[in-house]
Amino acid sequence: MAKPLVRLRVVEIGLAAGLLGLLLRAGQVQLVEGHKYAAAAKAQRTERVVLDARRGSLFDRHGLGLALTQETYHVGIAPNELRDPARDAATIARQLRLAPRDVERGLHRRYAWFAGPFTTADVQPLRTTRGVHLEPMLRRFYPSSEFARAVIGRVGEDGRGGGGGGGGLERLLDSLLAGTPGAAVVLKDRSGREYESPARVISEPVAGNDVVLTLDAELQEIAQRALDDAIDNMQADGGDVVMLDPATGEVLAVASRRADGSMRPSAFTETFEPGSLAKIFAAAALITYERVRPGEHVSGEGGRYRLPDRVVTDEHPLPSLTLADAIRVSSNIALVKFAARLHPDEQYGVLRAFGFGSPTGVEFPAESPGRLRPPREWSRPSAASLAIGYELAVTPIQLAAAYGAIANNGVLLEPSLIREIRAPNGTVRYRHRPEPVRRVVSPEVAAKLRELLRGVVEQAGGTGERAALANFQLAAKTGTARRVVGGRYAAGQYTASFAALFPADEPQLVVVMKIDNPQKGSYFAAQTAAPVTRSMLEQALAARTVALDRARLSNVASTADRAPLDEPDGVVPYVVQWPYTPDTAATEPDRIIPNVTDRPLREAIRTLHRRGFHVVVKGWGVIHHTWPAAGEHVAPGTTITVFAEPPPAKR
Amino acid sequence: MTFRGRHWIAFWLVALLGALWVVIYRQTSALNSARALADLREARAALEGRRAELDRRVRTAQSRTVLLPRARKLGLRLPADTEIILIPVPGSTSH
To answer: What is the pLDDT of residue A485?
Structure first.
């Protein structure tokens, strides 16, 4: 047995070796593998989380929210943490509007998860419930779900406009709206649960830009509702409405709908043959190249004109027609005859200059360029077809822009849907300015074209008479064209369309309305799209916030050519003093109801209104009789019902 | 007076306790602030959600789809354009 001193030495050496081993291991852990272990510890105790950036909002031109981002929640339930599982389950089911059985089933699991998403109002009473864990998430919210849905589009499940998104502006503007996500580090315990401690923010999320659209919410609603009613009442396959400010190119309303209720952005993406709506562009070429003299007549050919390859007909032929007559009554024969004086390059050049055959440049994905073939691809009847709006495929937005050029003294503007882009701090990053594309026709030619269009509505026999307003003049054109289905003209199917400049002097609004295959009643645009357009304009005038310059409008209205009163008595009862002070004590003597029998409806209404009567219209056309009858004495403000009879149908 | 061994021990113990108290105080205070911040954030989100819901309801109630049928039931109608009076703004001219 070794001596105690030796044994002590051995122990000392052993301890020293152990200590040395410990030191070496510590050195290895700390110095050699330190980074690895530090990273592992960090990963175990911390988690990097993405801080979602708030997606920018979409507003209408008056600041009304169209697409907003709202905080919503997923709800997780830890059953073992609930104080009173039965009562809490009932509360959760009631608040989240879940089936009680689903919640009960969830409580049998270790952790129940309800994806929702649930609104803040839903989860508010659950915030204080122990065992209920809320996970916030940002969700896109559309206050009016059907409002311009085809234009605005939708975001996908990932909250982005691309990928699985629903297209439209949400997709096009995704990079502007999305913002930049931030990042933060949170502490976790060994079970992976987050500590209730402030997160260490690495980078703050940057919210997306807000975009102000050119759309006017009230006009949009007027357009959508008018289109819905028209499609339902006429049993049409679908339709489109576009409203445009011709001075700026700003699109004020776009409505598109199919009969099944679906909404495709067809105003931008689907083409149709415009038919008679394109006659004004043939007229533009004829006036520009001076191929028609003022007052020059061509024969109406008795309504049937034979060309080498086809027969052109007129629905209501006139014996002879000027260019103004041809536009007013929408004569195919006269336009074909006049347009034969144009060289194909001239005819093509003017149509091309008005923007047909190329995208308008409006900020909408997948805009269709339409179709306009160059002269080298034309067949023999092409020139005649193009003069009356066939062999030409256009979108409603192209038509609106082209009519806008006529309203804008001959300058074609690029239509726009975006009015302003604002940074999250409110700084304006972009503001729309009118973008002239080119001068299409001279101001003088544009004025002549507006006069031709005015005649369509304001002169007797014009195809747009049913769109006429009593106090404001309208310049417009009707179009009824055969409809192409599957590459062929479908028997008995027509597209009724109407393009209007309101008012005719200094137009503030271009309206293009298209109704696909109206099946109930007439299919002519004069009886379908024209009165619907008038109704939309009346509603726009009555609306408070619509983007119309009423000061300018009042001046135009005051200078409008008005028919004289049938019995002028110097009384103009609708002029009010400003500021208006109602005087309830004032009484006025009874007035005689004027005789308006056989007068046109518009003139009769105007006459009765100027006498201080309210008017209810039954039917349309010329006045048959009134109730109370003409000659009776009644108090000012009495409602007079006028009964009208329709004139023969016009194209 | 000179510090002896036990005084030093007491001093370091008090210093340690003091430091620990400061750490705990700061942690507690930070947690309270974080909780208050989270509460405010939640309250704001709740109010924003409520505002959005009210906006939606107001928008629906103001829509023509709702208003026009009710107005018709009450015997009201949209005015014809002849019944809309635009009062010329003094000094404004046509341009």
So the answer is: 82
